Amino acid sequence: MASYSVIGGTSSEDLAKKIASKLKSKFIKCELRVFPDGESKITLKGTPKGKVIVVQSIYPPVDSNLVRALALVSQARKHSSQVFVVIPYMGYARQDRAFLPGEVITMSLVAKMFKAAGASKIIVVDIHSMIALDHLQIPAKNVSAIGELVKYFKKLKLKDPLVVSPDKGGIERARNFAKLLGVDFIALDKHRDRKTGEVTIRSTDHHEVRGRDVILVDDMISTGGSIVKAAQFLKKQKCGKIYASCTHALLIADAEKKIKKAGVTRIVSTNTIPCKTNIVDISPVIVKALD
Ligand code: R5P
Questions:
Q1: Cα of 56 to ligand 1 centre, how many Å?
Q2: pTM for this structure?
């Protein structure tokens, strides 16, 4: 395996340490100072050598974490011609196309900025869409956390489990999850009003969920609106226990409370975003992708 220096961005320090340890590589910590006007000042607490890996997730504060990622890439480039950027959660990936006239495709700008900063390759985890990945103008790889999440669910004693995607767009994710777990899957028919953001489930009866434990599988949980509506629907169908599994748990504001109130027994997420629910470690998958 090649020798690397791993720079732990401030949003992903623990994950970066795990990656460095698995690669038996030097770990470089960053010090962050935020000025009263909101500007970030980052200091590397070591000198990168060899190929450099920058690990920085782009979760809230999204714009600040994005600028910090770009600053780290640009600094790393001064020490190495090969800068691999691991962005465990790629913010702005949901802005991959114009849904309404005049909307700016910000993902395209983000892609240009990483290229300009000097990134040689980008690795992301369960990016929201392949369209978002295609905006990146340098070699990019999307790796999946599904295998690691499934390993966790295999250890639980679930009653006749059924994998459920809250929306038709997540059908492939649900299919893969269910296949690895060796169970069936279904996809609900979710609708989101593009102007108000309001979520509704348009599905009619799903008698197959009756009495079965369900695993709601999504790429991310943000406000929790999708999981709450899906859980309420599944409860009406008289399902058993409900688990919510996602790669990225943003859990904005009181999302976790709302989800629990809707009847979800447990939220299981990965450490692409540090939070209370990040039970599953994604570092083995990232390390494999660096091979
Ligand atoms: C949407 O297509 C995504 O896969 C997620 O379902 C969505 O972004 C989750 O957002 P929220 O938790 O706010 O409903």
A1: 22
A2: 0.95
